[in-house]
Amino acid sequence: MTKIRSSEITPEHIYISRRKFMTGVGALTAGAIISGCSSSDTADAPGIAPAGEKKAAATPTPRPTATAATTTSAETVAEVVEEATHTYNEPAEPFASVEADELGDPLNSYHEMTNYNNFYEFTTDKEGVARVSKDFQTDPWSVEVGGLVNNPRTFSLDELWTLFEQEERVYRLRCVEAWSMVIPWLGFPLSALLKKVDPMSNAKFVRFETLYDPEQMLGQNSDWYEWPYVEGLRLDEAMHDLTILSTGLYGKRHLPQNGAPIRLVVPWKYGFKCIKSIVRIELVDTMPISLWIAAAPREYGFYANVNPDVPHPRWSQSNERRIGEWGRRSTLPFNGYADQVAHLYDGMSLTTNF
Ligand code: MTE
For residue 117, which atom of ligand 1 is closest to its CA? Predict the structure, then answer.
């Protein structure tokens, strides 16, 4: 597949090389918004057990007005990122170099992103994940990459930060439960990692696996699901430049609840494809069976492309609730990334291949 350069497919203001990312930082601090989420968003999500309901009112705090090009505090950001890379210190304040996505919608707050989560290995209560996962050990960590590749390799946490240029990517995250957020991810294209291991010509899919550690992840003691969490992508989807491995958000290293230390982000697919706390990546020649397909094959398909025309048995997908907003907004095909990814599915029925 021809690799599309990020700068071609992502507007300049949201594609930020590490250097640029470094220049925007001092200008911003995160606005605090308390999110609201209706019970219809959270009922039996996205699997089987019911999740908690959020009732707090939305109280927007004025968003910062800086743009990526304003106040340059290159020094601050460079140091923050370098320091996070080598000493695992966190910057004092979460930051992003822009305040909205390319559609003009404001970023969700750091508080929302880190306190409203799906991570079934810990709990099915979205607002409890942060608390229950806070002692999860994510360092040392390594990711084993193998299968149908010429150069199998295990990457240490340090290598994941130093071998790959960290970028900020502002993407919408759309959960199949019909809620969404706008998130400034930190990470790097999955294609960069796959190129290092050199996939063989018979590799057709990429299979991802989360850590299996029922002592730390108590949810893995439940028989509801076949652990560990597994997800998969077609190789061309995995190589698409929008697909990233994310190491943090809002300029900070990931906290456990968001999938520390490394998770997948595929913005045109439902959030359950974005597997967290990855320990293994395997190139394979057959379509991987994900945890959700194994649990409910009639409800969850392999592709899981955001599609307002194909309802899930329990949730219409025609509209969604943006966390922090009242009311609902229409869901966009491919979550608003159709111009960049629809061609991957030319000639396929998106109803059959849901
Ligand atoms: N990865 C693992 N290992 N376990 C999970 O339960 N939940 C998925 C996905 N990745 C999940 C996971 C779902 S349903 C969603 S919507 C996103 O993570 C949520 O990511 P967030 O909590 O960072 O918003």
Answer: 22
